[in-house]
Amino acid sequence: MKIYLDCYPCFLRQALSAARRAGGTEHQQLAVLKNTMVILDGLDTGANPPEIARLVHHAVKQEISSSDPYREAKLESTKQALKMLPEIRRLIDSSKDPMDTAIRLAIAGNIMDLGVVEHFGDLEKTIEKVLKQPFAIDHTEELKSMLSAADHLLYLADNTGETVFDRAFIERLNIPVVYAVRGVPVLNDATVQDAEEAGLHNVADILPNGSDAPGTILELCSDQFNEAFKRAPVIIAKGQGNYESLSDAGSKVFCLLQVKCPVIAEDIGAPVGSIVCRRSAVSSPG
Amino acid sequence: MKIYLDCYPCFLRQALSAARRAGGTEHQQLAVLKNTMVILDGLDTGANPPEIARLVHHAVKQEISSSDPYREAKLESTKQALKMLPEIRRLIDSSKDPMDTAIRLAIAGNIMDLGVVEHFGDLEKTIEKVLKQPFAIDHTEELKSMLSAADHLLYLADNTGETVFDRAFIERLNIPVVYAVRGVPVLNDATVQDAEEAGLHNVADILPNGSDAPGTILELCSDQFNEAFKRAPVIIAKGQGNYESLSDAGSKVFCLLQVKCPVIAEDIGAPVGSIVCRRSAVSSPG
């Protein structure tokens, strides 16, 4: 997915938010805004959002010498989600269609995104809503069918905290799972440490993707990750950033997300607030 | 009120919105974004938001050769509000405290602001809410007292459509009113034409302020306006833009507004969504 003009103001907002989370002084925050405008001014309009976000968050970390501005927020998110894990499991176990419920809950967890807003909405209310609402794009049957035939799954994580919902989903599967996370902290996206704090090492092999983009830009990922990507018979890609970078990565990729911004809504063809399980297009090799 | 760093992304969003309303091509929209970043990069942090907004909207009009990008939206707003005028009058006439209701409705109309959002909220719901909610800052008694002693009122307009609510308020007064509007179109702020379309010439003398700032920056206003400002025994200033430029313009100025953005909320000390009737500070001469 290419960048839209609406992303420009959004990146400026995101840069300021990250600068504040990193503890930057007002002077440093202003410097971050100015650096971000230099990045935006030099943009190739064919760029995709996670590529730019990567540069923006790199600028924040450089200006303020912080390796992980969202560390505190991430710890809080994991704590909050872990508290809900028994209830998440109960909802899945008591469901008439546990697999459907597990998929929905994995998508519900995608609300824990600090890229689009300062504070994500109420988790309980989100769960209640997502368990009932129809999918705006629904390729869940194809996903289930591919999962039942696959010898393993590559699962691309998104936000910290959401990881706990992923964990409950993975617990329902009877195939090995490789759980891929960002190689370097960016936004509140999960890293190895964040995933371990959510207990993912108990249910999957955690694999850092070697990149600091808040999405999955294959050219920026490690050889080991690219090998896993190539080898996987089926891939789940969580969240907007992974959708932005993998929307045409081939038919073995399923994007599971909540649509949280108007730009994604326009691109994917589903309104803000909707839930999506979308099989990626095959226009480029997966 | 000085500019806050949060205004930077907001100006970029506003510039893009104005460029689209002006009918700019994608290429022109991008040029507007780039020009806006040049303006933001060169900012004096002591500047106030309407000063910057003025430059930003000037850049839009220059790039796209549009004298009034919000013309269509303004016509629609006036039409929508005029349809409600009988109901607005009825609410005032049937109220136990018609003056209080008229003030509240004038503030309710302030929701018709296209600077902070693309589409303002439901008018009926806003009226219902504003008629009941407590003022976050309440200097209405002082305002009423000054109005009863004054030989005339200078009323500084804000948005088009909101003008109709102002009209209903002015109809309740028994002193002459000078209704000041922007001298040149900017955002959806009311000009002479917009005010006349809302029928304000039937209840007040309409005075253009001679400036194209979406606020009241006295140094940029005409001598005639400044004379009227000096002479007025009491002044009502509607909306965020007038608050931003007149928050310390002296104790004869009363700002009537809805708080619609976090930056104003922080500055004025009242939450987003609250209603305010605030007598300006006297730190600088009014």
Structural class of chain A: alpha/beta
CATH superfamily of the largest domain in chain A: Uncharacterised protein PF01937, DUF89, domain 3
The number of distinct structural domains of chain A comes to 2
Main-sheet strand order of chain A equals 1-7-6-5-2-3-4
- Oligomer state of the chains in this structure: homodimer
Q: Percent of residues of chain A in helical segments?
A: 40-55%
Please tell me how large the radius of gyration of chain A is. 18 Å
Instruction: Outline the low-pLDDT stretches of chain A.
Output: none
CATH architect. name of the largest domain in chain A: 3-Layer(aba) Sandwich
Number of helices of chain A: 12
What is the N-to-C succession of helices and strands of chain A? Answer: HHHHHHEHEHEHEHEHEHE
Largest interface, C-beta within 8 A = A-B, 17 and 17 residues
Number of distinct beta strands of chain A: 7
Mean pLDDT of chain A: 95
What characterizes the major β-sheet of chain A?
Answer: 7 strands, mixed
Shape verdict of chain A:
globular
CATH top level of the largest domain in chain A?
Answer: Alpha Beta
